Structure formats: structure tokens, C-alpha cells
Amino acid sequence: MTYRERRPPGLPGLGVVCVWSRSGGATAVRVLPDACADVIWHRESGALWVAGPDTAAQLSAPVAGTIVGIRFPSAARPLGVPAADLRDARVALADLWSTRRAADLADRLAEAPDTAAAQRVLVSALATEPDPLAVALRSLAARTGSVTEMADRLGYSPRQLRRHAHTAFGYGPKVLHRVLRFTRAVSLARAGTPFADIAQAGGFTDQAHLSNEVRDLSGTTLSDLVG
């Protein structure tokens, strides 16, 4: 199996994390929570679906062939539905859009001569200007799990902030903080950072706390994720 992701120029300004592709045999993949949502197209079958923001790791269906995707830090604007409606879900795009609109996008993707062209189709159809409040909230949640602190910094009540977080990310600020902290810990581990250093840098109480959080969110150990 071959997985590639890239960040073409201009994507962050369009509210997109990356475009990606995966090709190879029918292998199940452990998909880790990352506070993002993806729109995914399978070239061979033409299937077009949405993977919502996850609260824990999921095993993808073992699909052979070529899969092309686009990843968003928030699904609300590009898809037109609250991200909370997609939490831990895999939903056909036609269930969220009109049948004709989804079919038109599927037809454009089918006409794409290669993976890069299919990714450009997804960007042109789905990329939107990012939600400034969602951008600010994500940045704060990467540093703190205090809802009160985030609300004060952004000028909202805690209740308003929780409501916006559910709309933008699929869950509240505290869960967003946990997922972002976990994502950073995995990235540091894969870069070779000692686990004790990751625990300290990531704001975990200790290495045991790090291990427990990784297991809760991924279903396995940090060593297994790195390996």
C-alpha cells in the first residue's frame, strides 16, 4: 500500500489541510483521530463519501485500488452541515448534498486523467475560506484544555464556545484539545523524540498519562504507532 499527502500552495488559505491518495491492495488501515474531516473518492467504484471527525481510531474498510481525498480542519463550511452530525461517521456525500450535485462531482472526478487532476477537482469543488473563529479556537485548543481560558480569549461564553466547537469540529473544546495533543504526540514520536520528552512537551502529567491517552484514542500503544 502506498499513501501520499501533499499541501499545494494556497491550501491553508482555502481552509484545507491537504490532499492525499492511497493505492494498493485491500488492506485495512488504522485511521487516527486528528480533528479533521475528509471527502474521499474511490476511482474504481466511483464511490464518494465523507469521513467525519473521529473521537477514537477506526479501521478503514479494506478497499483495493486508488483512493483520493481532501482533508479539512472543519467540515461545516465545505459540506454545509454541522461537523457534530458527522462525528465518528462515514457517510455518502449524496446523503449530505443533493443527488445531482454529488453526481456532478463524481462525474468530474471520473473524467480526471490522474490522481493529481482528481485532487484538483476536489479542491475546486470543496475548498472554501476558513472560519476565522474555528481557526482561532483550534490554535488555542492546541495549547490549552481550559474552556474558560479559550472563551475569555475569544470573547465568548463557555456555552457559546462549546456550541461553536461542536459545529466546527464535531465535539467540544476539551475533546478537541485531547485530540490535538494526541496528534502532536504521535508526530513527535514518529520523528524520534523520546517518550518522556513528549510527555513533558505535550503537557501530560507524566509518561503514564501519555500512554493512557494514546491507548484511549488509538486503541494501541505509542510504540506500535511508531513501529
Task: Write a structural description.
InterPro entries: AraC_XylS_family_regulators, HTH_AraC. Residues 131-227 form the HTH araC/xylS-type domain. Pfam families: HTH_18. It is globular and about 50 Å long. The two termini are 16 Å apart. The mean pLDDT is 93. The longest helix has 18 residues, at 173-190. α2 packs antiparallel against α3 (115-126). β4 and β5 form a beta hairpin. The strands form two sheets. Strands 1-2-7-4-5-8 form a six-stranded antiparallel sheet. A two-stranded antiparallel sheet has the order 3-6. The protein has 227 residues and is an alpha+beta fold. 44% of the residues lie in helices and 16% in strands. The chain has helices at 76-79, 99-111, 115-126, 132-141, 147-154, 158-169, 173-190, 195-201, 207-218, 222-226, and strands at 2-6, 18-24, 30-31, 37-42, 48-51, 58-59, 65-72, 90-92. It has two domains: 2-126, no CATH class; 132-226, Arc Repressor Mutant, subunit A, CATH 1.10.10.
